[in-house]
UniProtKB/TrEMBL annotation:
Residues 32-288 form the Periplasmic binding protein domain. It is found in: Periplasm. Its main location: periplasm. InterPro entries: Bact_Solute-Bind_Prot2, Peripla_BP_I, RhaS, SBP_2_dom. It comes from the Bacteria. Pfam families: Peripla_BP_4. GO terms for cellular component: outer membrane-bounded periplasmic space. Residues 1-26 form the signal peptide. Keywords: Signal. Gene3D superfamilies: 3.40.50.2300. GO terms for biological process: rhamnose transmembrane transport. This is Rhamnose-binding protein. PANTHER family: ABC-TYPE SUGAR TRANSPORT SYSTEM PERIPLASMIC COMPONENT-LIKE PROTEIN (PTHR30036:SF8), D-XYLOSE-BINDING PERIPLASMIC PROTEIN (PTHR30036). It comes from Marivita hallyeonensis.
Length: 330
């Protein structure tokens, strides 16, 4: 039987300390740790549901869902060290910093632990492969197009991102900047960072509205940031003046679409992402050759590029025409 373990850093350390006196699982269970940027974020909780689905399908797999309490590399390093002490079979991490976690992950691989990254990547030397949720150029174009589609006369837009070291958001922003010339009249005036914290993201959105009174859109390529920006725009009485868009969860964004603060937004299915990452981690931990096709269960299979990376699926756009179909799913 597979089991799921929710653990914070403190719980992880306590478990490591008591390993010698406790039999936590059946001898033949494989333990796959899903390490997220921070606990308490809806996107990652949905991904954990997908990991559970994969574990149930595979059998004899225990999912350890863990991460720090805030979005720091230091917190993730402590979590990784705890997982090494526990002797898990695989670590699948969405990294807060692509480089800072590498030494800890290399120690894990030296101990025979399979290490992959997903969502927010790790430098190549710190993992066996990376699973992008979608194509980076496609995401970059999508988040600009979501704003431009509702700005026929052009205007100013700003980006509210996660942390300055978030691998995935930084890549998406760079891709968005590359396609800006394809959208005449759209002016990117600022990029700010809310650290994937609701209160800080809210304040950053307020600051954007105060600094740029002619702002027409806030683009947030983060589920925490887009929801915080929606609230800030609503509280400022600027619904209809500033469109909040980017990447969000239907369950969290339904109210924003209904109020008119958000015309449309996009995301891939985080349940599918957690499912795929778990399937890949299991495949590699059981001997699948990473140079060939890697199976992902119901999601098909992937083949890695020269950087050891692959993309899962295209993003999907949500608006008032379809939000009700998905808001109770994730």
């Amino acid at each position: 039987m597979k089991r799921r373990t929710f653990t914070s850093l403190v719980a992880g350390l306590s478990m490591a300390a008591s390993m010698m006196g406790t039999t936590a699982m059946a001898q033949d269970d494989m333990r796959i740790a899903i390490v997220v940027k921070a606990l308490g974020i809806g996107f990652f909780e949905a991904a954990a549901e997908g990991a559970e689905e994969a574990a149930a399908e595979l059998g004899n797999v225990e999912i350890i869902y863990t991460g720090p309490t805030d979005t720091t590399a230091e917190g993730q390093i402590e979590v990784i060290n705890s997982l090494i002490a526990q002797g898990v079979d695989a670590i699948a991490i969405s990294a807060n910093d692509p480089d800072a976690v590498v030494p800890a992950l290399k120690r894990a691989m030296d101990r025979g632990i399979t290490v992959i990254s997903w969502d927010s990547g790790v430098a190549e030397e710190g993992r066996m492969m990376h699973l992008n949720p979608s194509s980076t150029p496609l995401i970059g174009n999508t988040i600009i197009k979501l704003a431009a589609d509702h700005m026929p006369d052009g205007g100013q837009v700003a980006i509210l991102s996660a942390t300055t070291t978030s691998t995935n958001q930084n890549a998406w922003i760079a891709a968005a900047e590359e396609v800006l010339p394809n959208y005449p009249g759209i002016e990117l005036v600022a990029t700010v960072y809310g650290d994937d914290l609701s209160d800080k993201s809210y304040r950053e959105a307020q600051g954007l509205m105060q600094t740029y009174p002619d702002l027409k859109a806030i683009i947030a390529p983060t589920t925490v940031g887009i929801l915080a920006a929606c609230q800030a725009v609503s509280d400022a009485g600027k619904i209809g003046e500033i469109n909040v868009t980017g990447l969000g969860l239907p369950s969290e964004m339904a109210g924003c679409v209904e109020s008119g603060a958000t015309e449309s937004f996009a995301i891939w299915n985080p349940i599918d992402l957690g499912y795929s990452a778990t399937m890949i981690a299991h495949a590699l931990a059981t001997g699948t050759d990473p140079s060939g096709e890697i199976p992902m269960g119901r999601m098909g299979s992937i083949t890695l590029d020269e950087t050891g990376s692959a993309a899962m699926a295209d993003p999907f756009t949500y608006d008032s025409s379809n939000i009700d179909q998905f808001k109770d799913i994730f």
